[in-house]
Amino acid sequence: MFQENVLALLTILAFASWQGYWWITERKADQEKPKTSHKVNYLEKHALLLIYIPLMVRLFGFNFFFTPLPFLWQFIGILLVLIGIGIAVSGRIALGTNWTPAAEYQIKKEHSLVTNGVYASIRNPIYTGLLFAVTG
């Protein structure tokens, strides 16, 4: 039980760190290359609650599965979360100030196509990373 709670807490911390990084880099990108408009997509801003809520409930001892998952599966899950967040963050770093939220569909001033870094081998590293992380 202790190991499961530690893994759940690590997962929450990993997603919270990723989200904090995202907010900080979004503000920096907006300052250096302003958006053409300021639309807010509340679903996108709060989608991570779908991840946080089950994890928080798990910390209080409730299980979503009929039988607890073996520790090995939980460990594989946290590895997928960390690998996924790593891929997503590397994609965000490669984009730099060219990043805009997908829901806003806009071109920024001096926007350019990024084909270096992780984008040289993965077409959509942010989505790929999130797919790994959410699967974990």
Salient structural properties:
136 residues; mainly alpha; 5 helices; elongated
SSE inventory with pairings:
Blueprint: H1 2-32, H2 42-46, H3 49-59, H4 71-95, H5 125-135
Please give a structural write-up.
- The chain is mostly helical and 136 residues long.
- The chain is 61% helix and 0% strand.
- It is built from five helices and no strands.
- The chain has helices at 2-32, 42-46, 49-59, 71-95, 125-135.
- Helix 4 runs antiparallel to helix 5.
- The chain is elongated, with a radius of gyration of 17 Å.
- It starts with a helix and ends with a helix.
Q: What's the SSE pattern?
A: HHHHH
Structural class: mainly alpha
Task: Tell me roughly what share of residues is in helical segments.
Answer: 55-70%
Enumerate the spans where pLDDT stays under 50 for 5 or more consecutive residues: none
* Tally of alpha and pi helices: 5
User: How big a fraction of the residues is strand?
Assistant: under 5%
The total count of strands amounts to 0
Largest sheet: none
Using only C-alpha atoms, the radius of gyration works out to 17 Å
Overall mean pLDDT: 79
Spatial separation of the terminal alpha carbons? 19 Å
The gross shape turns out to be elongated
